[in-house]
Amino acid sequence: MPTGNFIGTVDLALISLYVFWLFFFGLIIYLRREDKREGYPLENTNGPSDGGNLFAPPPSAPKTFKTAHGDMVSGRVDRREIKAEPSAPWDGAPIEPTGDPMIDGIGPASYAERADTPDMTLEGEIKIVPLRIDDEHFVETTGPNPIGMPVIAADEVEAGEVVDVWVDRSEVIIRYLEVEVGDEAASHRVLLPMPFVKVDTQEGVVRVQSIVASQFKTVPALANPNQVTFLEEDKITGYYAGGYLYADPDRAEPII
Questions:
Q1: Residue 21 forms part of a structural domain
Q2: Would you say residue 59 lies in a domain?
Q3: How many CB atoms lie within 10 A of CB 72?
Q4: Is residue 225, in this structure, part of any structural domain at all?
Q5: What pLDDT digit, counting tens, does each position of 31-56 carry?
Q6: pTM, to two decimals
Q7: What is the gyration radius of the CA atoms in the chain, in angstroms?
């Protein structure tokens, strides 16, 4: 009667077990390499980077993706200087900014090195534009129109005035308010993301709680007044988000 025995005590069941072990070992190595595509090599502030051993193999080669508009995008290592220092000598210690954290992109103000090109619609048009160059969209007359409203910052000081609205042509929503800040002699315009805005219809003002009035002057500027790039969007959003921690020194202190 057949027993499945090939050579001595090596039978079909044992071969299947060995094959499974080899497969499982290879699967572990594969997954450990794949999970290092983002955020590696691991940087150690007090020693060498993660070198590689059985459980920390080197990452796989970067993947390349083709976008809807034919551009090729691949992963890269972020080598930007971190303008902050550890607050203690051990690994994982909190960092303390060495400059202006909202401009330097530290902590909640951080931003990614995205492409310095604007987002596009499927039809190949610039996706986010101000109403002044878009004839297809408008602010609904039955609701509040923020254009012309003063902007009141977190310190209850008027920071500027809304002069235009930026719309998303694909989602058909308002993405940004364009604010003119400064005096008549030295004024310039900055973008204000809608998630940081509260339109006060009773008082007819736009309120912003993330930053104070003086900080509107240093909101990251646009290279082109009629378009915003991926990189500029990240910088602008990070600036306002960082204000919740850095705009006032008291915000970084314990609540109790």
A1: no
A2: no
A3: 8
A4: yes
A5: 887 777 665 555 665 555 554 454 56
A6: 0.78
A7: 27
Percent of the chain with pLDDT over 70: 85
Backbone angles phi, psi at 12, to 5 degrees: -60, -40
Residue 112 lies in a domain: no
Is the pLDDT at 4 greater than 60, yes or no?
A: no
Answer for the pair 115, 229: CB distance below 8 angstroms, yes or no.
Answer: yes
Does pLDDT of 81 surpass 80? yes
CATH number at residue 228: 3.90.50.10
Residue 248 sits in which domain range? 118-252
pLDDT at residue 13 is higher than 90: no
Distance CA(7)–CA(202), nearest Å, equals 89
Instruction: Tell me how many domains the chain contains.
Output: 1
Please give the angle made by the CA atoms of 4, 8 and 11, to the nearest 5 degrees. 30
**CA-to-CA dists, residue 173 to 166, 168, 193, angstroms:** 9, 5, 12
